[in-house]
Structures are given as structure tokens and as C-alpha cells.
Amino acid sequence: MNTHPAQPTPAYPAAPQSAASHPALGATDPELAALVGAEELLQATTLRLIPSENYVSQAVLEASGTVLQNKYSEGYPGRRYYEGQQNIDQIERLAISRARSLFGVEHANVQPYSGSPANLAVYLAFAEPGDTIMGMALPMGGHLTHGWGVSATGTWFRGVQYGVRHDTGLIDFDEVRELAIKERPKVIFCGGTALPRTIDFAAFAEIARETGAVLAADVAHIAGLIAGGAHPSPAPYADVISTTTHKTLRGPRGAMLMCREEHAKAIDKAVFPGLQGGPHNQTTAAIAVALQEAAQPGFRDYARAVVTNARALAEELLARGFDLVSGGTDNHLILMDLTSRKVPGKVAAKALDRAGIVVNHNTVPYDPRKPFDPSGIRIGTPSLTSRGLAARHMAAIAEWIDRGVTAARTGDEDALAVVRSEVAELMAAFPAPGLPLP
Ligand code: DSN
Description:
Blueprint: H1 18-21, H2 23-28, H3 30-45, E1 47-48, H4 58-64, E2 75-76, E3 79-80, H5 86-103, E4 107-109, H6 115-126, E5 132-136, H7 152-155, E6 158-162, H8 173-183, E7 187-190, H9 201-211, E8 214-218, H10 223-227, E9 240-244, E10 255-259, H11 264-275, H12 281-294, H13 297-319, E11 323-324, E12 333-337, H14 345-354, E13 357-358, E14 360-362, E15 376-380, H15 382-386, H16 394-410, H17 413-428
Parallel strand pairs: 1-13, 5-6, 5-7, 7-8, 8-9
Antiparallel strand pairs: 2-3, 4-10, 9-10, 11-12, 12-15, 14-15
Helix pairs in contact: 4-12, 5-12, 6-11, 8-9, 13-16, 14-16, 16-17
Bound molecules: D-serine (DSN).
The site of D-serine has 4 residues, from loops.
């Protein structure tokens, strides 16, 4: 039961450096520049544990802030509805060829505006309104667009949903197979937003083959781990791979769809003209840069370190008596069930925010509480690893989380303030990519 009074959102001082780092913005719109500066400071001084977030490089930031912003380019390279595409065509071809080579796929479409439109394009390519589609239930760790009721994908299509086992927190493939045989979905989605364990793409592919479904692997969360060799690739198994580009892949906010040549036409047609107009060329360029960065040997080290850090953090949390869904993690993400700590996820998340630790409240499988006030919090290591934090730092982070969650229960604001200053001290020693130095 939450007996704690609502707390104000933490106030962070405006960053004086914002005008210097964004001089034109500072001159034209000081109010907006101050807000950007405040966000820079927030991202610099806090421990960002939201597993779907990251820090992009200065090069990615620069590419996404270029004059490519000024163009319309409906169509695809060599087949546009606008002239003046001499450079845009080359940029999009570069992004496509880098995606194909990094993920080992025959075809890539780099135009989807983000993950949800990318997933909608998959349905448009392979299903008709009213058809049955199947995905993991949102409260079990899936995504809204995997057929959940409040999403268009769960109202325009008949969404049937699988989950994880109550006792293990793991996907039960016998259950998935039985459901697929009974419901005969046109499309099966695997992947999700709160899955701490390795996705068995081969097992999903076998079920999809047996039931005549198209297998769509939504790897948005783990794309960077796949690119860096720290998670198995769906490329040999899935008919189509959907991913955002801004999570572990460390690119701009955007998305890609990848598939074998046989599905290329259907996918391209679904993205444009099926769902979208002109691609966001500045994003395409920044995706190309991120893909080039992800192809460097150092990115493999990054991907491995993300997983090593998450495992180390999970061990430290378990040692402090926390309940972790599925008992730990294989990837970048940890789902914590706070029921036994007697503090709701949202209360804990808000308290941790006041302590400079940014997480999100999250449902846990079979959560008796409501999605907007659930039992868990979701954390992850992509951002802290981008700042260079290593396994040796995870004990301190687990201890801060422990102290923060305890303070959330007892209402001890002084304890949160102490954690906040300790966090800020560590963060100051590990500057974030892409942020102006204080
Ligand atoms: N909102 C994303 C996440 O946080 O996982 C999924 O779309």
C-alpha cells in the first residue's frame, strides 16, 4: 500500500554551458536552449538505467542535425517522387548496405519512423485486417504492437497472446506451440520490452513453420547485442526482423526492417506508400553512422560489457535479497519485482529518480497491480556501459538501489539526497558520449 505523499519532480539547475554548445539556439530561443541545457545536465549527472535508452555519439548527433532535414525524398533510392536526390540516394544506400552487412540479411529498409510504425508495416505486409496475429502479452514483457488490446494491432487484428511461466518467468514453448496450432495466426511476433533472457529464435521459427505463420523477430532491445555478437541473431530464422535503432544499437531514434529478398517488395511497399510519406533523411544518415560505429571491433567489446555489467548487477541485487523475474538476466535488462520489499514500483521509481537513478516502473508477469501502478521496476546497463562503467561498479549501484528502495518505503528523503550526491560524484568521473563537458 502506498502511503507516501506525492513528491515534487527534482529540480536541476539550468546548465550554463547550453548557450555555448548551442549558440544559435541560445540566441533565437533562450527558453528552449535552457531546457536543452537542463536536459544535458540531467543526462550527465544521473545514473540512467532505463534499458531502452542510451547515449549516442557526437557523430550520430551531428548527422541527425544536418541540412538533410530540409529534403523530401518519397520513394526509394533510384525511384523517388522528387528530384534533387543525388546525395540522399547515396546516404540511404549507405545505410542499407551497412545494415545488410552488420546483420547478415539480404534486404534492409531504413525508413520506418520508429518501432511501432515498423511493426505495423509487418502486419500490413503479411496480414489483412481481422486476421489473427500472435505476440507476447504486454504485461508479460511483450510490446503494445504485438497485438495488445489498446493498440491498433490488437483492434484491427485479432491478437492472441502468449506469456511466461509463473514458476520460472520463462517462455513455455509447448504453450506457444499449442496456442499457435489452435489459433493459426498469420504472423507470430517474438521479442519484447521486458525480457531478461535470451530469445530462442530457432524454437519460434519451428512453431511458425509448423503452423504456416510468418515469424517476425522484434529485436529493438537487443539489436546492439546482436550486432556485437552478445546475443544470437534471428537472421537465419525469422522471416522479418524489426528493430529500433536507438536502444542498445546506440543510433538515432528510428527503425529498420530486415528480411530475405523474397519479402523485400512486400516490406518496402508496406512502409512506403503503405504507411509513411517522406523518410526522415537526417535520421537515415545518423542510422548509417551508428551502423558504421557498430561494425567496429570496439562495439563488440561494448556489447559484451553491457551483458557482463547486467549479470554483475543482477548478482549484486540477488545478494541483497531482491526478487528478479526469471532469477537474473542473460542480456542488458533486469526486471525487479518489489512485492517482497513492500513498495510499489512507481513509488520506488520516483524515489530513485530523486536519488539520481533513472528507472521506469514496470509490470511483472502475473502482476496483481495495474500497469500504471505496477509491482516492479525495469533497469538495464546500455547507458552506463556507454559511459565506461564496468562490473566493479555494480556493487555500488546495487547498494544505491537498495538504499533508494528502502528510503522509498520509509519516506527518508535525506537518505535519497545522500545517494544522489554519491551518484553525481561517480557520474562526474565517467563523462557521457555526446554531452558537453561541465
Ligand atoms: N518504449 C520502449 C521501451 O522502453 O522498451 C519500447 O517501445
